[in-house]
Specification:
Blueprint (H helix, E strand, L loop, with lengths): L2 H4 L3 H12 L6 E2 H10 L6 H14 L3 E3 L6 E4 L6 H13 L5 H12 L4 H8 L15 H14 L1 E10 L5 E3 L6 E11 L2 E8 L4 E6 L3 E10 L3 H4 L4 H7 L7 E10 L3 H8 L5 E3 L4 E10 L1 H8 L6 E4 L1 H18 L3
Antiparallel strand pairs: 1-3, 2-3, 4-5, 4-6, 4-9, 6-7, 7-8, 10-12, 10-13, 11-12
């Protein structure tokens, strides 16, 4: 392409050069800018670059100059700061529901929001290969299907699987399709879940998005509107342990005061804690009574006691006895 024809693109390439190569610790002199433009087959005079820089500033680009004798130009403020980009990289690489391959693709895209110098700092903290990751690359299409169903207010059909002992997919429900009304997506314990209404069971259910297969949109409108009018995803995930279902109950716990921090982290500051004067407090929380909830309590040994209801207390006693029986006799 002739140099003269490339003049129409000059201001765009100038912006590209500044965004990719400069930050507050790395500026480019006018001579360096002119040289880089030459690599794009663009010849320019200093005066035209000054005009282009002002045009980019008017456009909203935060271009600053260094106080040095050889004035340098750099991008001062960006859409994302370096700490924010590091946070995004950490979130992507630690997410189990994102495959290793997709994690690396997303991290490369995140790096494009920084200069090449700052991107090298981001690369220094990337540890993806040995992390536990999902093996289902179709999760991105699944999320798109679910969002489409929610926006179109229709039900979905899908197949659901679990891993067998050989690491192979084993279809649940004898391979038959599940039908559900999708209402929300939530992230819990580093996994992505669909929260949906099951009309046949007349209750809310959740499904691991990376274990859903062959999702298709149905013509039937979603069910469960009255249930989800009062639904709060954040409250729901506090009640469910490891997204493992069960009967929802009010459970009263007795805990030593030094566990208040753990109780608040798990159930929120709004849970009412009543001191009993002996260095302990009681708290009543709404939870789904599941094996994972009971195991969570059991993990604290004798430090957390279930007071009520009696049926839940008995279930924990039975679980503790069964664990003890496994280890009897060494």
């Amino acid at each position: 392409m002739a140099k003269q024809a490339n003049q129409k693109l000059k201001v765009l390439y100038l912006m590209k050069i500044l965004l990719e190569n400069t930050d507050e610790n790395h500026a480019l002199t006018m001579a360096e800018i002119l040289s880089m433009l030459q690599t794009y087959d663009i010849a320019a005079e200093r005066k035209s670059i000054y005009d282009d820089l002002e045009a980019l500033r008017s456009f909203g680009l935060d271009i600053e100059t260094t106080p040095d004798r050889a004035v340098g130009y750099y991008i001062a403020e960006r859409t994302f700061s370096l700490p924010e980009l590091k946070l995004l990289v950490d979130a992507v690489q630690s997410s189990k529901f994102i495959t290793s391959k997709k994690s690396m693709e997303l991290i490369r895209k995140i790096e494009s929001f920084a200069s090449c110098h700052e991107a090298s700092q981001l690369q220094g903290q990337v540890f993806v290969q040995n992390r536990i990751k999902t093996m289902n690359e179709s999760i991105y299409y699944n999320v798109d299907f679910i969002h489409s169903a929610i926006s179109q207010n229709v039900q979905i059909a899908f197949r659901y699987f679990r891993w067998d002992v050989h690491g192979e997919q084993e279809l649940r429900n004898n391979g038959a399709e599940y039908h559900a009304s999708p209402w929300a997506l939530t992230w819990d314990d580093e996994n992505y879940y669909l929260v949906a209404f099951d009309e046949a069971l007349n209750r809310i259910k959740h499904y691991r998005v990376d274990k859903m297969l062959q999702i298709r949109l149905l013509k039937e409108p979603r069910k469960g509107q009255t249930v989800f009018d009062k639904f709060d995803t954040a409250v729901y995930t506090k009640k469910v342990f490891g997204m493992y279902g069960g009967e929802e109950k009010s459970v009263t716990l007795r805990c030593p005061v030094d566990l208040a921090n753990i109780i608040i982290d798990r159930f929120g500051r709004e849970c009412v804690r009543i001191p009993d004067g002996d260095g302990f407090f009681t708290v009543t929380v709404r939870v789904f009574e599941s094996p994972l909830f009971l195991s969570w309590v059991l993990g604290f040994g004798d430090r957390i006691e279930i007071l009520q209801p009696a049926s839940t207390r008995e279930k924990l006693r039975t679980l503790a006895q069964s664990v003890s029986d496994v280890y009897q006799g060494g």
